Amino acid sequence: MRDRQWVGCDYFRNSRKGGICRTLGTKPDFGAWLDCRVTARVQAKNGIKGNATNGTRQQDAPVVAGNSNSLVDLSSASDLVNLALNLARRFFVTLGEDVPKTTANTSSGVDPHSNRTGTIIGFKALIWNGRDITDPKNAGVFKNILVTLGHMGSAQDKIRVELHNTIPDVANKFASLTPQESQRVDQIVVKYVQAFSDMDQVAENAFKEIKNKRQWALSYPVDLRDSQGYNQHSIQSVPDWGVTPRLNWTSNVGVDIYDAKKVGRNRNGGSASTEFQFRITEDPKQTQPILFSLSGYGQWLTNVVPTYKVQGKLTIPLGQKTGVSLLISVTYASRIDLIQEAHTEAKFGFTFDAAKIVAALLPSGFSH
Fold first, then answer.
1. Buried b / exposed e across 102-125, counting CB within 10 Å, b at 16+?
2. Cα separation of 191 and 189, whole Å?
3. Domain annotation for the chain: domains and CATH numbers
4. pTM greater than 0.70
5. Which residue of 3, 291, 304, 307 is surrounded by the most CB atoms within 10 Å?
6. Residues 47, 54: Cα–Cα separation, whole Å
7. CA-CA distances (angstroms) from residue 307 to 67, 113, 264, 296, 334?
């Protein structure tokens, strides 16, 4: 009887981290058991739901890198197997290496300035973060949560009182209830389930409202090469807007400086780009969703004709906790390097989210 009743909560035991939920299989606890029964009724009423991420954390190399799979930088920090330092959640430092496709100076059509290995240093400041839950401007979003949370706590207390009054010694024999007693438990829970259902809905609405707010960052990435290659400097304004829970829009507008140093002429000007990122994965519980991005890019520099690019990109996570994703992109460019003709190129590569990898490697107690 005990095993039969407890197996109905296996999804609960396996889907949550931390605390007693990890040891329910060997030492069930009355409080956790009751939480499980309530959760089962709430999910039966609402459907299984969960919070989602909007996929706007940048994992690819900055656009300034020649081997980047992106045309647009996002307002969050980038992780390119790099050192990404998050200072007070608003300032980011990125370090990495730009390895060109070829280092041969005589390669046909390849600008000799751009085929040198470079060191990438990037600074990004999140000036306006509408998604910061600690921002006082978002206090109103959580006011309803606190009220609803109070109602849920009251409902939970009433469930406990009725269970103790209806089923003697339920705290000790909950794992071996008769079918009639188990049915009575569900009846009591259903009586108060609306308070828990309301809490789920209010929390989900608050999450969507916060996630869809806007961000704005200033970015300064630089690609430093030796004396035979350009030093590329870029100062970018990066607005970011969650248009819908599954669609995010980002734009880059800024100044680009190509310092030729001792060889050739400098190239100075600006660039503008935009990207729409769509979340293909419908299940909101997936923290690493499949994403499709469509972006456009234009650059206007002195001493060279303008460059225009259009790109489609697919991001496929390799598991939900690995922090590793496969990127597949197809890019059309009006010209490349010294070749004054259109070019289409397909790329694939892997990106690594340092934060997720570190979290996966830490002991479970550190993930709280």
1. eeeeeeeebbbbbbbebebbbebe
2. 5
3. 2-14+30-46+135-210 (no CATH), 83-131+214-367 (2.40.160.40)
4. no
5. 291
6. 21
7. 17, 17, 19, 11, 6
